Amino acid sequence: MLTIDAQGSPAPHLTSRLRLIAGGRDTGGRTPAHKTGRPGNGVCAIVGGVNLSAKLDLLVRLVTRVDVLALGGGIANSVLAATGTDMGASLCDYDLVDGARKLLDRAKACGCEVLLPVDVVVATEARKGAEDRIVSCAAIGPEDMVLDIGPATAARLTACVEAARTVVWTGPLGVCEIAPFDGGTDALAWFIARRTRDAGLRSVAAGDDTIAALAAAGVEDRFSELTTRDALPAWLDAMSPRAVPA
């Protein structure tokens, strides 16, 4: 079901926990006490998708070139597991826990902030109509599968985007092909599209899954650039790297 935003553009009908308002995110009338990212300088990378193994090399490069690295999907699950979070029945690359810890250490040494989910949408099975609920990451149960980001995490991500000049995004933030687990991906897609239109944000979406998710949300033509994930290394090489400790 589609609704129309204040600019006359079709906007997705989202659950109240991840609803959008014209011109920006819904914060319930409150301004966030902390904005992620550094105003005026920001390059923010958002990386989701299923497997950490497929993107670990990319993440290692990203932390040397971006100000904020925000993670979602199965990739975030694996990194959360590396921090000691019990991920229940969620998809995780447990064999890459050491690699995830090294990634966090490298990011810290390079001055790159890593943004991990603080709340998530969980269910005991990934199917349409499954009973779902929002929990903090500390409250994931043994039978819970993390299937989307929660509203507090979505607010942190939109704050990161709001502070950035450039956003590069590859990989959905949840099981976006199954409602209602598309809420986080759709909300972020629309927020980035609006910042691109209204604030001159440079927005880059990379990879078939990401572009398909944007198309499902109806905003694939509202990003600055669409590219392949294989093209990201060359895109990153055009950016000045941070000093990388030995």
Task: Explain how this protein is built.
There is one protein chain. This protein is of the alpha/beta class and 246 residues long. The chain has 7 helices and 13 strands. The protein has a 6-stranded parallel sheet. Strand 12, helix 6 and strand 13 (225-227) form a beta-alpha-beta unit. Helix 5 (183-199) crosses helix 6. The longest helix is centred in the last third of the chain and has 17 residues, at 183-199. It is globular. Mean pLDDT is 85; it is low at 1-17 and 19-40.
Portion in beta strands? 15-25%
Label the structural class. Answer: alpha/beta
**Average pLDDT over all residues:** 85
Number of helices: 7
User: How many strand units?
Assistant: 13
What does the secondary structure layout of this molecule look like, with pairings?
Elements: E1 2-4, E2 10-12, E3 20-21, E4 24-25, E5 42-47, H1 52-62, E6 68-71, H2 73-82, H3 97-110, E7 113-115, E8 119-123, E9 133-136, E10 145-149, H4 151-163, E11 164-170, H5 183-199, E12 202-206, H6 208-217, E13 225-227, H7 232-237
Parallel strand pairs: 5-6, 5-11, 6-7, 11-12, 12-13
Antiparallel strand pairs: 1-2, 3-4, 8-9, 8-10
Helix pairs in contact: 1-3, 2-3, 4-5, 5-6
